[in-house]
Automatic annotation (TrEMBL):
Pathway annotation from the record: Purine metabolism; 7-cyano-7-deazaguanine biosynthesis
Needed cofactors: Mg(2+); [4Fe-4S] cluster; S-adenosyl-L-methionine
Biological role: Catalyzes the complex heterocyclic radical-mediated conversion of 6-carboxy-5,6,7,8-tetrahydropterin (CPH4) to 7-carboxy-7-deazaguanine (CDG), a step common to the biosynthetic pathways of all 7-deazapurine-containing compounds.
Protein name in UniProt: 7-carboxy-7-deazaguanine synthase
Gene Ontology biological process terms, A to Z: tRNA queuosine(34) biosynthetic process
Keywords for the protein's UniProt record, in alphabetical order: 4Fe-4S, Iron, Iron-sulfur, Lyase, Magnesium, Metal-binding, Queuosine biosynthesis, S-adenosyl-L-methionine
Binding site for [4Fe-4S] cluster: C26, C30, C33
PROSITE patterns per the UniProt record, alphabetical: RADICAL_SAM
Binding residue positions for substrate: I7, Q8, G9, R22, T67, P193
Chemical reaction(s) catalysed: 6-carboxy-5,6,7,8-tetrahydropterin + H(+) = 7-carboxy-7-carbaguanine + NH4(+)
Organism: Hymenobacter wooponensis
Root EC class: lyase
GO molecular function, one term: 4 iron, 4 sulfur cluster binding
Amino acid sequence: MEQFYTIQGEGFNTGRAAYFVRLGGCDVGCVWCDVKESWDADAHPKVSIPAIVASATAHAGRNVVITGGEPLMYNLGPLTAALHAAGCQNWIETSGAYPLSGEWDWICVSPKKFKAPLPEVLAAAHELKIIVFNKSDFAWAEQHAALVSPGCRLYLQPEWSKAPQMMPLIVDYVKENPKWQVSLQTHKFLDIP
Ligand SMILES: C[S@@+](CC[C@H](N)C(=O)[O-])C[C@H]1O[C@@H](n2cnc3c(N)ncnc32)[C@H](O)[C@@H]1O
Ligand SMILES: Nc1nc2[nH]cc(C(=O)O)c2c(=O)[nH]1
Ligand code: SF4
Ligand SMILES: [Mg+2]
């Protein structure tokens, strides 16, 4: 759908330069999704793997974030192998709703109520990023924290439009449950892609 070189705005790698590859297509249907224009894959041009690698490596940074849409709707083996061969570190942003494919240096799983994550993807996650839309999401976050590996980093990120109401609850929750960390969509505050 789009490619852009920016700063990773969310989660563990916040603040690090990264080239984003946003793949079109998603059927998870989050009511609050901030890139609904990504849902229809056919609405976007197809780009070849060599062209993506060439664009990604035209910048000083070598971290590539594969996002979407839901990137795991596709077999990401060929794309991630080509990026690795070009010296890139491959990071993914996924809901975990489809089987894991590809070669990854960092896996961020952000599970959704609208289409449950697969246990195998949760088990492979380096980072679990729960979007907090209402109070019930804290209990839901704990359910998923029980399904990730022991070393997985745990993040609570406010849904953007609900942040004014949810942020005080998130702050209190993290103070009481310090295995969790706060994640903010810092790129939205910085007004960068
Ligand atoms: C647009 S999604 C694409 C990747 C994948 N489909 C997923 O949901 O993880 C990228 C990240 O943005 C988060 N996100 C989407 N809409 C959001 C919103 N309104 N507020 C906060 N985070 C949001 C998702 O949970 C996910 O972590
Ligand atoms: N700067 C920036 N950081 C991000 N982290 C995850 C994003 C995404 O939409 O997957 C995203 C994004 O869209 N922009
Ligand atoms: S899974 Fe990701 S891309 Fe798909 S609707 Fe939800 S937030 Fe948007
Ligand atoms: Mg985004």
